[in-house]
Write a structure and sequence with these properties.
Strand content: 5-15%
Number of domains: 1
Oligomer: single chain
Radius of gyration: 18 Å
Structural class: alpha/beta
Order of helices and strands: HHEHHEHHEHEHEHEHHHH
Length: 269
């Protein structure tokens, strides 16, 4: 898998909408799981991020987040707007969210005997999620549960301590439930120190398994209204975030149209 700006000067680069869209390099959940399985079998580490409009906003503003994204080996389209934008650009991708990855990835780990660690959320959520996952997948090997302290800095000393603990856990894949941008920044730092381990950012996925957070009902997700469900549940926190996402949509649409036009010119047949 290639990353659109892995070898560019991410500290000073202007993060264009085209570069952001080009970073998505995974077409489907099945393709992602197959490639992750291959990485584990070869002892090769990886880091999975899930692109959504909130990430696009952060990428335009935060050089450290751009550096973290440059270290991600696999980037999926998380959120219907990103899926639609990619298709408008002439690239067919399916929705692959971090939360939706937890169960199929855990099933794969149980089937292949892949050792798992989970980092993020609270101690209670981690414990409850681990119990549920072990019950659903007999034989699953969860080697460590790590709940970072309050105010956790993914680029600070506490991160180094967690990385050291992960190195002793013998886990092959670590699920990260820190939220953006912390989980992506931690993954980038940890992958540099543990090049044989895989890191998958799953957001609230562990809390959903534990039952400590409630996800939107299935019909709401099918209708692409999960954003509205979240907004109604926490308007004070999410209204300004969603407003920033809406504000970048015109530029993202323009970039997608331009990408489609350029592809048509390069491949007229």
């Amino acid at each position: 898998m290639t990353n659109a700006w892995a070898d560019t000067g991410t500290e000073h680069v202007t993060m264009s909408e085209t570069v952001i869209l080009d970073a998505v390099n995974i077409p489907s959940q099945a393709a992602l799981l197959a490639d992750l399985r291959d990485h584990v079998r070869r002892g090769q580490g990886f880091s999975v991020a899930t692109m959504n409009l909130d990430h696009a906003v952060k990428l335009r503003r935060d050089p450290s987040f751009r550096r973290a994204y440059a270290a991600q080996t696999h980037i999926t389209a998380d959120g219907r707007p990103v899926v639609w934008l990619m298709r408008l650009a002439g690239r067919s991708v399916n929705l692959v969210t971090g939360s939706d990855l937890v169960m199929p990835l855990i099933a794969l780990c149980a089937q292949d005997g892949i050792r798992v660690a989970m980092l993020g959320a609270t101690e209670m959520a981690l414990s409850q999620a681990a119990d549920q996952l072990r019950a659903d997948h007999p034989g699953l090997q969860i080697t460590d549960l790590l709940s970072p302290p309050m105010g956790f800095d993914p680029e600070g000393a506490a991160a180094d301590e967690l990385i050291e603990r992960l190195s002793r856990s013998q886990a092959q894949i670590c699920l990260l439930a820190l939220g953006a941008p912390k989980q992506e920044k931690f993954a980038a730092r940890a992958l540099g120190s543990l090049p044989g381990m895989g890191f998958v950012s799953v957001g609230a996925g562990i809390d959903f398994v534990a039952g400590t957070q409630t996800r939107a009902p299935g019909l709401v997700r099918v209708l692409a209204l999960e954003w509205l469900w979240r907004l109604l549940g926490d308007p004070k926190r999410l209204l300004s975030r969603y407003a920033r996402c809406v504000a970048i949509l015109p530029a993202m649409v323009g970039a997608a149209v331009s990408m489609r036009r350029n592809r048509a010119l390069q491949d007229p047949g």
